């Protein structure tokens, strides 16, 4: 019997990829190269330092750890400035309704996000109160596809992982859900999210009754 849903944030509830792209592009240009939208796809769901390492590799630039920390901090300052203007208008279609329908069905909700900015973004979107618990990158050691973040969300809810359904748009995220032993709903293309148990285009297609067993 399903007792909870664990949602990813970026690409599921809101689209922050465009803001990350602007800030990463500025960083790349500071270092003398460009990134494009195609490359940006590879950064979805990837944590801050891992993203920086991929970008540096892409540009053929080598930095010391100290320089990396400084560049990552500057990128984040710029990103934080970009997301300061976010509001409920930045919710993806059906996101609020999906969260409300899960809670309306008597189930719990959790957020499992690789972003350290996740709590601030939830506040800007006006949906903090729709989550029973939030796990962000500040609280975990291993990034997706490691199951740690989804397992921690289940633990914080006090629900067994196999009674949880995870919702993710990134390949590594779906892997993280499956590695945690949960049912996985993919958001996007079924040909890409091959490990997902079900795939929908977006939360506007989400129907809680399709996924929970009723007695
Ligand atoms: C999400 C995004 C990534 C981002 C990561 C870390 O997973 O999809 O693009 O790099 O969060 O975000 P942060 O806000 O902590 O830099
Ligand atoms: Mg995502």
- Find the structural class using helix and strand composition: alpha/beta
Distance between the termini: 9 Å
What is the N-to-C succession of helices and strands? Answer: EHHHHHEHEHEHEEH
Mean pLDDT: 96
Strand content: 5-15%
Helix content: 40-55%
Shape: globular
How would you portray this structure in words?
Belongs to the HAD-like hydrolase superfamily. CbbY/CbbZ/Gph/YieH family. Substrate binds at residues 8-10, 24, 43-48, 51, 75, 113-117, 144. Mg(2+) binds at residues 8, 10, 168-169. This protein is an alpha/beta fold and 215 residues long. The chain has nine helices and six strands. It has helices spanning 17-30, 37-41, 48-59, 65-83, 95-104, 118-125, 148-157, 171-179, 208-211; strands at residues 4-7, 108-112, 133-135, 164-168, 183-187, 198-200. The chain has a six-stranded parallel beta sheet with strand order 3-2-1-4-5-6. Helix 6 (118-125) links the parallel strand 2 (108-112) and strand 3 (133-135). Helix 1 (17-30) packs across helix 4 (65-83). It is globular. The N and C termini lie close together (9 Å). The model has no long low-confidence stretch (mean pLDDT 96). The site of 6-O-phosphono-alpha-D-glucopyranose has 15 residues, from helix 3. 6-O-phosphono-alpha-D-glucopyranose is lined by residues 10, 20, 43-48, 51, 76, 114-117, 137.
Protein topology:
Blueprint (H helix, E strand, L loop, with lengths): L3 E4 L9 H14 L6 H5 L6 H12 L5 H19 L11 H10 L3 E5 L5 H8 L7 E3 L12 H10 L6 E5 L2 H9 L3 E5 L10 E3 L7 H4 L4
Parallel strand pairs: 1-2, 1-4, 2-3, 4-5, 5-6
Helix pairs in contact: 1-4
The structure holds 6-O-phosphono-alpha-D-glucopyranose and magnesium ion.
């Amino acid at each position: 019997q399903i007792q909870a849903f664990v949602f990813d944030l970026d690409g599921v509830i809101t689209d922050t990829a465009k803001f990350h792209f602007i800030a990463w592009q500025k960083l790349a240009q500071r270092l003398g190269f460009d990134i494009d939208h195609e490359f940006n796809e590879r950064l979805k769901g990837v944590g801050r330092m891992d993203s920086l390492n991929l970008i540096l590799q892409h540009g053929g630039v080598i930095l010391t750890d100290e320089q990396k920390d400084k560049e990552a901090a500057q990128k984040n300052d710029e990103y934080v400035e970009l997301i300061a203007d976010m509001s409920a208008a930045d919710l993806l279609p059906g996101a609020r309704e999906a969260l409300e329908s899960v809670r309306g069905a008597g189930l719990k909700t959790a957020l499992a996000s690789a972003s350290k900015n996740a709590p601030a973004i939830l506040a800007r979107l006006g949906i903090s109160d729709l989550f029973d618990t939030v796990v962000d990158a500040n609280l975990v050691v291993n990034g997706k596809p490691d199951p740690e973040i989804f397992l921690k969300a289940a633990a914080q809810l006090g629900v067994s992982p196999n009674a949880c359904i995870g919702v993710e748009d990134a390949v590594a995220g779906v892997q993280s859900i499956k590695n945690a032993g949960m049912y996985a709903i993919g958001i996007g293309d079924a040909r890409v999210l091959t490990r997902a148990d079900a795939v929908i285009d977006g939360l506007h297609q989400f129907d809680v009754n399709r996924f929970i067993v009723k007695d």
